[in-house]
Amino acid sequence: MEKTECRNPIETGSVIPKAGKIDSQGSQTRQNQLVERAYCRYRCNVGNDECHREQFPKYALNTIAGNEGHLSFDAESETIMINYTNTANFVHEVTHAGQFETGDVALSSLGKEMTYAQDIYDEVSAYRAQYLYDPFSLPSSSTQVNSLTDINPAWVQGLQDAATGAYKYDYNRGSGTGLYPVNINSTKSALIKAYPRAIHEFRGFDDNIPLKEMLNDIYYKK
Known about the structure:
Blueprint: H1 25-39, E1 42-46, E2 51-55, E3 58-63, E4 70-74, E5 79-84, H2 87-101, E6 106-108, E7 115-116, H3 120-133, H4 153-157, H5 188-194, H6 199-202, E8 218-219
Parallel strand pairs: 3-5
Antiparallel strand pairs: 1-2, 4-5, 6-7, 6-8
Helix pairs in contact: 2-3
């Protein structure tokens, strides 16, 4: 069998521009190109006689209005959309994209604006990344942030929706953000601990079935 040439992965796009340097249209275009090149790449695992090529999920950037971004899956183009409002929010959302890559979160294959396996620690990581880019971009919470370690589960759970006043990440106050760490491989006991209100939804599954096999519309990194 003829040996297939192996492509090297593109490693560009890992440096985020400094605050205040991304406002012009030209800089925005360059940022889009860097990130899309970084995520639309191939990884090769070379065996004895041939190169096996694995295609990574395809990502695209989408600037939206408002104060909050989100990840979503476009089923028609089979593309993960990183929807963001500004550069600081982009840093936040691309952190969630990294969590998708590691299986810490998953998306709806039907294109719904829904994140599966989301927990409070996913948000702590994203807000910490945002803080490192621009400390002044953080929303107000019940406590003040003076250092990175101040961004903890309690701080994130204190964040409220500016329009409705609802607590966005406090499971005990009605949000859907898990109380404890979970991922696509978490099984029933861990999921019930993280989402106690959903105990009836999980009760019918066997103890060793992972979340990624429980849902019909879950899209995750394989």
